[in-house]
Write a structure and sequence with these properties.
319 residues, alpha/beta, Rossmann fold
Length: 319
């Protein structure tokens, strides 16, 4: 398989690398997948797949695209701005507004530059933290006709995620404000990656950590999901943006377009899907995968419910 992709491309699937700009003029690196021999004169349904926070298109999105392209969808995966092969300096800066914009930029590209895509049949999938960003995008971009989330995280829910007291929150803000001065003096923002430059040989060689950190490492820090462009984390002061932005404020406005929330019964993150489900208006649906932890829905083709995704989006596009 090509270096960096965590799954082998199916022989019946074509993958083409493309680049396009978002509305801020930042170049986005993306991969376009479609079934070989597909009638490119016909309007085909399309899906956009976003990577987990700090992830890249060669990881989980490639797994989803490879499978869904075999089911008749044109699939676009992309690197977030400031990440992977996309533009943006300094590297590893995180912006919830720009990350949500990336989904709309993908709709721009599919609807204008891919003539065999039916621009009225474009949906999106957010894996992990991309779920929050795609829900934010869909709340204002009505061209996104349906949304599915997998192992959802809402990285903008910093206060809830960390269960911070007011004193802890104030201390965090003070620390981040101090870091801004240090970054300015240094001429570059502080960035501390979470994963090594080269992967550990296997899970048995991983260092001892807490259970959630260990779960991340069992994907990102071993050959299973390792990629040199996805070493985890963002610049330290990126957390300030997450404190200012709430991805789910307008989730109710996605209705009457449908939302599907997929998560594992053993996922440490399941509370995020359940909260978002409660906040959303109908039509909405939960799909709980048996015997699945959070990272299983990144790459486990035996766990990811592709038949359900196919049915969900095809039904949504009929309306």
């Amino acid at each position: 398989m090509p270096y960096g992709y965590i799954t082998e491309l199916n022989e019946n699937v074509e993958r083409k690398h493309v680049r396009y700009n978002n509305r801020y003029g930042l170049a986005i690196a993306a991969d376009l997948y479609y079934e070989k021999g597909a009638d490119q004169k016909e309007g085909l349904p399309a899906l956009i797949v976003g990577a987990p926070y700090g992830g890249v298109k060669e990881q989980g999105p490639a797994v989803y695209a490879n499978e869904l392209a075999q089911r008749g969808f044109v699939v676009l995966t992309f690197d977030q701005v400031y990440m992977g092969e996309s533009a943006g300096e300094p590297r590893h800066v995180s912006s919830p507004e720009l990350f949500a914009e990336s989904f709309s930029a993908a709709v721009d590209y599919l609807g204008v530059k891919v003539p065999f895509v039916d621009r009225n049949k474009i949906g999106a999938i957010g894996i992990c933290d991309s779920a929050g960003f795609v829900l934010s995008a869909a709340s204002v971009d009505t061209r996104i006709k349906a949304v599915a989330t997998a192992s959802m995280y809402d990285i903008t829910d910093v206060r809830g995620m960390m269960n911070l007291s007011q004193d802890q929150l104030n201390e965090m803000k003070d620390d981040l404000a101090e870091q801004r001065w240090k970054d300015f003096e240094n001429g570059q923002p502080e960035y501390k990656p979470s994963f090594p430059e080269t992967p550990y040989p296997n899970v048995d060689t991983l260092p001892e950590t807490d259970p959630i950190t260990n779960e991340w490492q069992r994907f990102y820090a071993v050959p299973r999901g390792f990629h040199p462009n996805a070493r985890g984390n963002f610049t330290t002061t990126s957390s300030l943006a997450m404190l200012q932005f709430k991805a789910l404020d307008y989730i109710k406005e996605i209705s009457p377009r449908p939302i599907l929330f997929i998560y594992g019964d053993r996922a440490h993150s399941r509370a995020y899907s359940e909260r978002a489900y409660k906040l959303a208006n109908e039509p909405k649906e939960k799909y709980i995968v048996k015997d699945a932890e959070h990272i299983d829905l990144y790459d486990r083709v035996d766990k990811i419910p592709f038949e359900k995704l196919e049915l969900f989006f095809n039904d949504a596009f009929k309306k």
